[in-house]
## 1
Amino acid sequence: MGHVTALQGYLLLAALLFAIGLAGALTRRNAILVLIGIELMLNAANLNLIAFWRYGPHPEALTGMMFAIFSIAVAAAEAAVGLGLVIHIYRFTQTTDLDQMNRMKG
Amino acid sequence: MQATISFTPQVGASAITQLLWLIPAVPVVASGVIALLKQPKRKTAATLAIGSLGFSLLLALIAFGHVVSGWSHGNAVRETVNFSWIRVGTTNIDLGWVLDPLSAAMLVMVCFVGLLIFIYSTGYMAHDENFTRFFCFLSLFAGAMLGVVIANSLLLLFMCWELVGLTSYLLIGFWYYKPAAAAAAKKAFLTTRVGDIFFLLGMVWLASGTGTLLFYNNGGGSMEAGALASLLGQHAAWGLTAAGAIGLLIFCGAAGKSGQFPLHVWLPDAMEGPTPVSALIHAATMVAAGVYLIARVYPLMAAGSLLGGSTTALTVVTWVGAFTAVFAALIAIAQDDIKRILAYSTISQLGYMMAGLGMGGVAVGMFHLITHAFFKALLFMGAGSVIHGCHEEQNIRKMGGLKSDMPLTFVTYAAGMLALCGVPIFAGFWSKDGILEAGSHWSVSKGPVALLVFGAMLTAFYMTRQVVYVFFGHWRGHKPAHESPAVMTIPLAILAFFAFVLGLFGTPAWPWFQGFVSGREAPLEIRGLFESNVLLVMGESIGFVFVGIVLAWWLYGGKSPKPDTPDVLEKAAPLPWAWLRNRLYIDEIYGVTFIAFYAWWARVADWCDRRVWGGAVSGVAIIFRGWAQLNRLLDANVVDGTFDKGCEELSTGGGLLSRVQSGQVQAYLRWLAFAVVVLAVILIWSSRA
């Protein structure tokens, strides 16, 4: 491969971030850390949105920026809900270990 | 098929004719209202019944006055109101009512006698707990009877006729807890039904022969010349014309209702009902309905008669009537029950009316009907008063000497008895004389008139016997008798007055009624009384009546025998007495013939039901039961087995799938990540290609 363009660099960074987040979400036992991993994956997606906008055909239209802001807002709400659930579950079970939270099995 | 109901009164009928329907309708409505009353509302019930019939009487009198005034101006009134009741395709079924002398006279009689009997009933039934029900039935009966009278259509007449039969059943069986009363009601209903079947056949034949059941319809009715001519043209079996055959069929219905031999058996048993019922239904009105029916269809019966001759139908009517008159009078001689004697006397007098219709025409028969209604109602109510006074005793052998205990009842009863016997001046004399005189002119045979004269003697005999037993001699009962209250004796007095004077409207010197009914002038001619023929017949009948009375007085007068000793005639001739006593064994003959046949037939039907039809039904049931067993086996083994297996498989599959749902969030996440990787690989691969 030759040299790497700016867009490709951002995409690689985003892929790296996503992989780190995924690894965290899959391997950690602690629910909070899983949430953090998920946030990382979300931000990798956001980075992609921004990068594709900045280096896309219409960088002057601010669409990518708007998209990313919406996505961050939704992610914030989702994080709040997730944390709320985690706190509630913790009150019931006195643990945040996900392996022990299997009461929803079929 | 489209049926519509429409009401179009014919123009030209006078106001009273338009309103004629109110005469039967008001009592029927009153009866409906009374039916809704509670048992203790006695006064309301009686007031309603009497008030409604009083209103009908008022209307009837106005109608009568209208007809009389028309007649005195020289035109016979016959006004009809017809309307189409049901229209099916092109066929109309018409109903209607008619105001003519016949219906007007009958209306006044029924309303007047009915009203007196209603008033009398308030006294007679005063202690009965079902007083309101009684008045409900009475009112319904009166309405139905008035409907029969005004009907201008054989169909409407038949409907009211059946209603009359129904109320008669209800009233005879009024004391239904007495087995005898219940049986008598059933017998009356079934016996009259036999006649009604023939009536219905005649009606259907008339409808198909003439296309209409209306009697009079401006020349288009079935009793008018056109229809009669077409009926005369058609021939039925045995040399009868269709007119004659239909007439005879209708006469069968009339014979059932009017208790003519051989359908008379129900009438004596009907005496089980309360006495006012006997007076109203089985003396004055219902049994007269048969005679009235024959008078109504008289044009049909008389159609085709040559001048001065008679038709087959009328000849049959005459012979049946004359035979019944003597037959019933004979039985009446040997009866001891005060009401049964009167019942047989009624049958006998109805025979006179039928014979009068057959030999002398409508006027003669109807005149006897009207006078008889008054004096027979009087006699029955008198008998009721006697029974009431003697503490429900009905055996005349256990009475006696009531002349002094019940003077009012005695005087009125005597008036009725003299009228029935045909003692001169009294109503029955003139009307019976009219029949005998018509008979003496009858060209077919002198047989009926001879029978009727003999019957007159028998009538005088049994009535004298009864009166002597009841009112003369000395008291043979237990508790002393008492006179009845004024509410019962006043109607008696009114009827007695009419039993005395009514005949004066139909004497040979002044045949007012005969003229009125047949629409002729009726001048007052005293010499009419002294024509040789008239005098001969009168002399004959007076002579026979005199012989009857004297004979009975000689045999029974002043003896007062103990109730358990045999009757004078029984000692003289035990065998004929036993025959008469047992009503000539007619009931027994029916018992071993018709009833035995029906019982046998019922047993056959029962056997068929059990064995033949029952067997077939059980066979089918067995087949179906086998089929059901087979089905059950199939169900249990094949269908259920397959189904169970399927369920098991599903359940296992579900169990396997549920393993995937481990509840481990990260396991789900792993699946997601795996899927994303797979998707990414596919995307990359496809973009490469």
## 2
Amino acid sequence: MATLHVLSHSPFADSRLSSCLRLLGGDDAILLCGDATYALTASTAARQALEAKADSLKLFILDEDAKARNLTLPEWVQSVDYPGFVALSVQYDKVNTWL
Amino acid sequence: MLSRVFEFFIIGPIHSCHPLTEPSMKFAIALYSPAHAASSRRALLFAQAVLCGGHDIVRLFFYQDGVHSTSANVVTPQDELDVPALWRDFVSDNRLDGVVCIAAGLRRGVLNQEEAERYSRPAANLPAPWDLSGLGQLHDAVQAADRLICFGGP
Amino acid sequence: MPKSLLIISRQSPWSGPSAREALDIALAGGAFDLPLGMLFLDDGVLQLLPSQSAKALQQKDLTANLQALSMFGVEELFACRTSLAERGMTSTELSVEPLQIVSDQDIAALIDRYDQVITI
């Protein structure tokens, strides 16, 4: 069983990303959207925390949010559009949005 | 008038936009944020993509500040996306079940005609296609759907 | 067989309606006899502090409703051990029971076990 966790809050002002990373199951994935995409900003603790899990964690980002913020994406993150977001929600057993 | 047409943003009834490559699923979509939050538009585009992908939406449930996304009283600046109007059109054009939680709505001043009269409030701001109902409808949708997706926050 | 739902409550009791509205989802589901669980995580564990006074803020008593959860058929209540420790609550006598204190790994398994999840 695997869960897709969806985050949209900035990791700098908020503990959702760090809590989420603590609670991940072995096959879970994270989709970053909205301000959570800032977690990929270079030279940040958030990016380091994600990179440390790059081998075991599937990480996705909503393409429009990455583009809006002019983020450079590392190769261990996969960019998805809305049809891709829907496909992920079908592929994973459940979606847990960190409201 | 929209200043941009978003890539696959479709206004009007949606027919399948992509050939279905996986079994059709039933989605329950819940929104917790007002129209001016990025997550409200995000939820709308996701919902459109669900229908485009050949899946079904069992219900759209608006809870917490999500009730504000359905208010007919929101006036959007002309050079911005009119998200409440787009939600309303999406629900009516596709004949979807759009339910606004009554407790969350009352608390936030989102009332249909009946509730405005019941509580002697000066205005009703929840016309069709919206239904005002209880949390039982959220639970009912969760039971009926294959997937529950919530949107909220930024 | 009805689908089970885990409600994860992450907000403190007094900052806004989120704690109350998470609880309302649980109580509504309990009224329909649905299999539900509730997990208190991050600031959500602050709802479990004893001897709080809603009256002091002219608000409704959340604690009484939390204590009524099991009466409404919501018997699976959990609190995150790490969240409690971060907030100095490891030895605190919590205001709600029965309550299982769970580790991070337990929580991953919990989320897996339930059919659906709502995090508020």
